[in-house]
Amino acid sequence: MKIELGENRYGKAENRVVRITREQGTHHILDLNVSVQFSGDFADTHLTGSNAKVLPTDTQKNTVFAFAQKYPAMEPEAFGLKLCEHFLDTQTHVTRAEVRLEQYLWDRILVDGKPHPRAFQKNTSLTRTARVVMDRTANGGKEAFVSSGVEDLVILKTSDSEFTGFIKDHYTTLPEATDRIMATQVTAKWRHDSHDVAVLSKKDFAKSFTKATEKMLATFAEHYSLSLQQTLFEMGKAMITEQPDICSVRMSLPNKHHFLVDLSPFGQENKSEVFIAADRPYGLIEAVVNRDDAPDAGFIWPAW
Amino acid sequence: MKIELGENRYGKAENRVVRITREQGTHHILDLNVSVQFSGDFADTHLTGSNAKVLPTDTQKNTVFAFAQKYPAMEPEAFGLKLCEHFLDTQTHVTRAEVRLEQYLWDRILVDGKPHPRAFQKNTSLTRTARVVMDRTANGGKEAFVSSGVEDLVILKTSDSEFTGFIKDHYTTLPEATDRIMATQVTAKWRHDSHDVAVLSKKDFAKSFTKATEKMLATFAEHYSLSLQQTLFEMGKAMITEQPDICSVRMSLPNKHHFLVDLSPFGQENKSEVFIAADRPYGLIEAVVNRDDAPDAGFIWPAW
Amino acid sequence: MKIELGENRYGKAENRVVRITREQGTHHILDLNVSVQFSGDFADTHLTGSNAKVLPTDTQKNTVFAFAQKYPAMEPEAFGLKLCEHFLDTQTHVTRAEVRLEQYLWDRILVDGKPHPRAFQKNTSLTRTARVVMDRTANGGKEAFVSSGVEDLVILKTSDSEFTGFIKDHYTTLPEATDRIMATQVTAKWRHDSHDVAVLSKKDFAKSFTKATEKMLATFAEHYSLSLQQTLFEMGKAMITEQPDICSVRMSLPNKHHFLVDLSPFGQENKSEVFIAADRPYGLIEAVVNRDDAPDAGFIWPAW
Amino acid sequence: MKIELGENRYGKAENRVVRITREQGTHHILDLNVSVQFSGDFADTHLTGSNAKVLPTDTQKNTVFAFAQKYPAMEPEAFGLKLCEHFLDTQTHVTRAEVRLEQYLWDRILVDGKPHPRAFQKNTSLTRTARVVMDRTANGGKEAFVSSGVEDLVILKTSDSEFTGFIKDHYTTLPEATDRIMATQVTAKWRHDSHDVAVLSKKDFAKSFTKATEKMLATFAEHYSLSLQQTLFEMGKAMITEQPDICSVRMSLPNKHHFLVDLSPFGQENKSEVFIAADRPYGLIEAVVNRDDAPDAGFIWPAW
User: Fold this and answer.
1) Are residues B20 and B72 in contact, defined by beta-carbon separation less than 8 angstroms?
2) Which of B106, B203, B244, D86 ranks highest by number of CB atoms within 10 Å?
């Protein structure tokens, strides 16, 4: 029997970079959590302890901060591309560089109704995410897989949701529901179809992100839902239809149950008015929605 | 030596009530986390195990949900008052009822720029809190202490903050800073000066809350800060000055440090542009700001 | 109307100190989370922004680390006393110094059944806590209030617990239970009766802590419980009876509900075998148990 | 352009089952968090909203609790196998059933040094995990992929760890370290090599788990480490060598940095005695260690 090294990668996780950009009296914040990972020829450090091919994670961290100074006010996807290019260009034994980013959003504080130029309130109602995986191609070039996404986005609708017609078996106790609260916490990622680093580096990711999230939310609001699965599919479909360069959408939607409270012991009727918000267990609905001719996902999708 | 029972209380914590109110096609959400606590003549259950005077926490929970149906769309302070009154009225051996509430806010989802009547996005950028403590008075009546507040509110300013002129001793390494990022996560509570249940029950807590938080944020934004302590005092002072029925403000402000990253090893200058957001340790600034004639706080303030 | 500064304090929170002590081949870890707070003459920094009396929280942090080197292997209570003394001795305008400590425990890794001298596994089943509040006395001296405690200690018993004979009212649905699971997560603090800094500095806090927690756990295990309140009182009473220099015990015990699952729809009987562990809501039982002649608590107890 | 449904699955997550088994006066706890997921022919619910093929997640939950009563005191791997078999046997359109389990451990409370038969303290120093993925085979049978694992296991060594000889580039500031603290929080999973449901159902997973974790910990303690990568490989290699039916080990090891504090400004020398435990950023080392003839992993490994 022999023991071998399999898949492996390493890097510095959760570099908390805050980049301030000043335009005369008006300041801008870019607030990121940046994680870097390298794959490549790292057998030696695992097998013999030689670190001759290891760029320390501390150096990766320094690079992230230095690049934040050099390249101000970038979209997270573009900042990830910049870092991946640098690492592949300077570390010839690295075959794949990955950068994951979380962007925390800040709103300007309103003073007498007007946005203040240099004071901010954190907007935690949604975290913007991005991921870049850059590989070397057969011809010595580089190709990139880029996804954008959201996390921590909690949405709820009080009408237009039912759940009926499901399988009944020996263990079924759930009644059918023709009017229920539907609530979920969206984790979504969507892939951009180009793998060309030059093309991606010029893409307007800010505009794409805004359009994608607006469409996702509007579809959730307006779609009459027969199941959370159906709503998920409609949300993904609407996002791709509007922006076909988004070739694939992947969502993980916990069904945050709101149970109608039985008030009949107290002589009260509960006409879908009072609910208890449950923590656990929760349904978990996960699916990918694809453009039929979507290019391969490479390593950008964390498979299950 | 004798062993005695000291201070004690009990109740049901974290009842997650969601109350939907329907006005024709438009729905409203009241999303609360309600915790109840009783103090009173509870020596027996501690000393002998007799529960003859114990209203179970399960019954407290049922009451919270039943009242949410009976009294729709209340401000959290008013809902707390209603519950406290009920408990003191029906449980004669309870001498003090306390209700703590967290209200989670929901924005309407925008569809083509217009707020949807029945679909919502959770706004987690600020949690509204309220607390009601109701006691029996000497003459057999009831008096209430009510506070309102915020939690989870993260704010930051990129200018108009310095920290200089402090004590230097053997263990000092901190340089003076004439231009720094100031950031904090606000936990604030403010007391309403009336203790009259009837008066409090008619108060417009929604309007008061909006004015208080707007003034707090505007003061943070506009005040030139020589220390976080000074900013705290100015915020509290402005809140009381504008609404003198707020007789006292209590704040706990962690100083969320953003350290300037030293880029000189890489030949780069960092002109207050790139910061690392630190998790721990953090400064912690806590103070109460009072109207000079504020009535006694009773048991509404959790003392240190 | 005048606006005044009320209670206030400031300090550096959550200094994560790890102190290694080497005895030839055997190493020891002291792993602490240390928070410092000063009260005193700090009106100026709040009212005018003058920091002339402010020892920065950064300097407090440096002091904590420097003292960890100077005074190795101390019990957390003793380390807190040492820090408080230093701060009161050197900062004459500070009237009260407080230090809160959490100690994370580490077990030695077993290799072939034998404890390794330099490799450890974190024991998170219980966090040891300590708190020191040191005040100036009228005669220019110092007095200290010291408490010890535990957090994150989850305990459960599968027998000898019932809950019956409670009040029934309009909102009651809970059945009486003569055999139930009782589970809680203990947060406990206990005060030491001496306020003499010299006496306290020589106390064997390690031994006291071990005896207190062992007695607490054994009482929980052995006591036949008619209510969680009764169990709380018995635990505190047993701790004080065994070590009368512990003059007061304060506990906060969430009732971590385990609900019997109704399996009758599936034709199965559930003889107290299958439970669902609920997250929220939970009962919350809080009380102080005192030696009848316990000295005043000063500011060591966080009042409600 | 057509929009298609891609990979998808659904189920009930985080069913918190506590199963008590009574042997005369001695009780045993099995405390599990069970998550179920189905893959299969679920296009309809996504595309048309028809739930005719959907077994509700509520029914999955009921099944988990009912099975906990029927099959007491199982190892988590065996309980997962039992559930997967049931679901594939009764839901013909389900092609893959997955069950993930977390087992929370409980120690008996000691009373006068003796373990109490019915009172317990939660041991959170390590969470045991298991995962079962069951697929249908070409010939109409079933095959299972089973992994075991640990989470929340924090380990640290104070000697025998260095990090030298690494790449230096423009962004390097890290000095070489010949004596450092090495600490990590282990998330590990290991695969069992048989895919035969009958064979797996008879395996002694308890014994295998104990041996695997003991070997992992002993190797961490005893191995002289030139990098965390090397230590990871040695841990996996030792586990497989001892129990070759463990054909593959996958680990994710955050490098929990402990930085030596510079005490020289205070005239103190820090001879590897005082460290600050940092939260973020952290190095993250991930790798798989395989027996060279390990069978395919199927869908048991969450790929990156």
Assistant:
1) no
2) B106
Mean pLDDT of C264-279: 98
Contact yes or no for B261/B276 (Cβ under 8 A): yes
User: Does D25 reach chain B within 8 Å, measured CB to CB?
Assistant: no
Q: Are residues B165 and B275 in the same domain?
A: yes
Tell whether B204 and B265 lie within a shared domain. yes
Both B53 and B112 in a single domain?
yes
Q: Identify whether the C-beta of residue D37 lies closer than 8 Å to the C-beta of residue D80.
A: no
Kindly state the DSSP code that residue C239 receives in the 8-state scheme: H
* Same domain membership, residue C217 and residue C95: no
The domain tally of chain B equals 2
Closest partner residue to A170 (CB to CB) among C173, C266, C280 is C266
Residues B65 and B173 in one domain: no
SS3 label, residue B44: helix
A258 inside domain: yes
- Other C-beta atoms within 10 Å of D124: how many? 18
Minimal CA–CA distance to A46: which of D191, D289, D239?
Answer: D289
DSSP chain D: --EEEEEEEEEEE-EEEEEEEEETTEEEEEEEEEEEEEEES-HHHHHT---TT---HHHHHHHHHHHHHHSTT--HHHHHHHHHHHHHHH-TTEEEEEEEEEEEEEEEEEETTEEEEEEEEEEEEEEEEEEEEEEE-TTS-EEEEEEEEEEEEEEEESSSB-B-S----TT--PPPBSS--EEEEEEEEEEES---HHHHHT--HHHHHHHHHHHHHHHHHHSPBS-HHHHHHHHHHHHHHH-TTEEEEEEEEEE--EEEP--GGGT---SS-EEEE--SSEEEEEEEEEETTPPP-TTSS---
Residue with tokens 């006066």: D25
Residue A210 is among the residues annotated as catalytic for this protein: no
Angle between helices A76-90 and A205-222 (to 10 degrees): 130
Residue C1: inside a domain: no
Output the domain CATH number for residue C73: 3.10.270.10
pLDDT of A301 strictly over 90: no
- Give helix then strand counts, H and E, for chain A: 6, 11
Distance from CA of A131 to the nearest CA of B (A): 21
The answer, for A8 touching chain B at a CB cutoff of 8 Å, is no
What pLDDT does D73 receive? 85
Amino acid at D298: G
Mean pLDDT of chain A: 97
Write out the H or E segment, with its range, that includes residue B201. Answer: helix B197-201
- B130 shares a domain with B74: yes
Confidence (pLDDT) at D32: 98
Q: How far is CA B78 from CA A51, B68, B89, B205, D4, in A?
A: 65, 12, 16, 8, 51
Chosen domain end from C105, C136, C167: C136
Is B278 a domain residue? yes
Residue C86 CA, distance from chain mean position? 23
The yes-or-no verdict on residue D130 having pLDDT over 70 is: yes
> Are residue C124 and residue C143 in the same domain, yes or no?
no
Q: State pTM to two decimals.
A: 0.98
DSSP codes of every residue in B166-177: ----TT--PPPB
Rounded to 5°, the CA angle C233-C235-C238 comes to 105
Same domain, D267 and D164: yes
Supply the range of the domain harboring residue B236.
152-304
Q: Which of B27, B45, B57, B211 is catalytic?
A: B57
Closest chain D C-alpha to B261 CA, distance in angstroms: 13
Integer-rounded Cα Rg, in Å, for chain A is 23
Q: Which of A136, A165, A191 is the last residue of a domain?
A: A136
Residue C53 exposure: Cα atoms within 13 Å on the Cβ side: 19
Cβ B7–C288 below 8 Å, yes or no?
A: yes
Which of B10, B167, B230 has the CB atom closest to C283's CB atom?
B10
Residue whose C-alpha is closest to residue B45's, from C182, C229, C237, C286: C229
In a domain, B141, yes or no: no
